[in-house]
Write a structure and sequence with these properties.
Number of domains: 4
CATH superfamily of the largest domain: baseplate structural protein gp8, domain 1
CATH architecture of the largest domain: Sandwich
Structural class: mainly beta
Number of strands: 33
Helix content: under 10%
CATH class of the largest domain: Mainly Beta
Strand content: 35-45%
Largest sheet: 6 strands, antiparallel, barrel
Distance between the termini: 23 Å
Shape: rod-shaped
CATH topology of the largest domain: baseplate structural protein gp8, domain 1
Strand order of the largest sheet: 26-29-28-27-30-31
Radius of gyration: 35 Å
Length: about 550
Amino acid sequence: MPTSINTRKLSYNSAKLLRDSVRDAATNTSPVLYVTLGNSVPYNNEGSPDNLVDTINTEKAAFENIFAGKKVTGNDIELVIPRVNWTGNTKYRQYDDTIDVEDLVTANTTLNLKPMYVITSERNVYKCLSNSASANSNVQPTGDYTTSNGNIATADGYIWKYMYNVQPSNKFLNDSWIPAPSSTQALDYGVSSIGVLPGELTTIVMTANGTNYRQASNIRVDSFTSGQTTIRLSNTANALAIFSIPTLSNLANMAISGTGLATDTHITGVAIANGLITLSSATNAVGGNANNITILTRVYIEGDGVGAVASAVLSNTAITVSSANANVARISVTTIGTGYTRANAFIYGSGTNANARVIISPLFGHASNPAQELYANTSMIAVRVGELDSTEGGLISVDTSFRQIGLLQNPYKYSSNNRIESTNANTVISQTTDLNIVAGTSYTLNEYVYQGSSASTASAYGYLHAQTSNEVRLIKVLGTFVTGLPLFGATSGVSRTVTGVANPELEPYSGDMLYIENAVKTDRADGQAENIKLTISF
């Protein structure tokens, strides 16, 4: 076992720091990020993108491939979690403050367990608080924070906590990911503090089920009046038989209910000789004689919070004297308590050895910070290239393709020794070297073009990314092109004189390439926009 850990909160905070830093665009200390498009040159095998290795040369080559970039704004980045659709006849993990958080949010195929959260057909996101003692979920939860403070009990025994809702137009929602808001974004995602209760006690799990537990509702008692603290069993032998216990002392601390008894009354003592039962609360009305008293296994919660009430569910709720070895199957929390930082559950009944453990919510309550509680460690960046128009104001060619996308942080402007700042960063950048040329025959798209005596001894070269009648745009440029000299095409054999040179917007190799992906070719076209989505996990 390791003696130190990096908690999942470190990963969450790293992802959140990236998101928040981009959103803090009001200061020049915030990073400038560009999603980049690159590499219009075909792979050797177009159906199989080239593999990547994290080297300095890989980063340099990726920079050389860039022909355009779109700035990432605060609206283009969000924390996300893997998508888990609610599916019937499926077992979900329940929230547990003692379980490794990686297990809580990861499926286990061996145990057939899904993570502890789901998104439903209504695009509501819920956290599972109780899985009904590891039963299958067969009822899709519905309702929000206005329903029982967001604690949704379904007919299959599950308890779900409503976390938030995702609108269908949310650009961070797709087949693989769900956006995960922090508390500061509550209003954007249908969350309210109404549904957030600090220190919730919602779940008690069995650690040992015990044996020989019984409960009965056919226990007759003598008549009594209001205000009594004791009542008497009409037939002690009958009670002993029903519970199959050697002595009535086994009933001490069990719950008792019936006509004339106050709510949440329990037995504090039994006089064995005369069947006299002492009550925790005085009777509040006339009862007994023809009335039956119910005696149940009692769950007592001790802790520093208030309000939690629980009851025991036995493995057989209609127990007879012949039914041996009945146990406490599960504990049902009938009233959710609040303000708990610690708690213990004690089980009192006619049997022995049943034990349980209390599960307490995060300090500020379930749904106080959905992203943190669902252990989001991934930031998604989603930008739209071609939003202004297909060419983004003529900066990006439509008669081309791209095979590489990247994420570039803090580049410099061309011929500058200072990084671009958020206040002077263009929304769209062109990273091609653009040459004005005299009229003539067209070059071949993507071919190697150069100046010099030969292709192998070129003084400057690049690859033709796009062209018009009097201009060519180049990527993978090395060297300095000179006006008045011819530009040769290595494949086409075309030679046309250069009349002007326009440099790219960014200084070569400046900034940090945080993400590089070789992808299958995407062809751009007039009237087309591309939605680019990147996920960065910590």
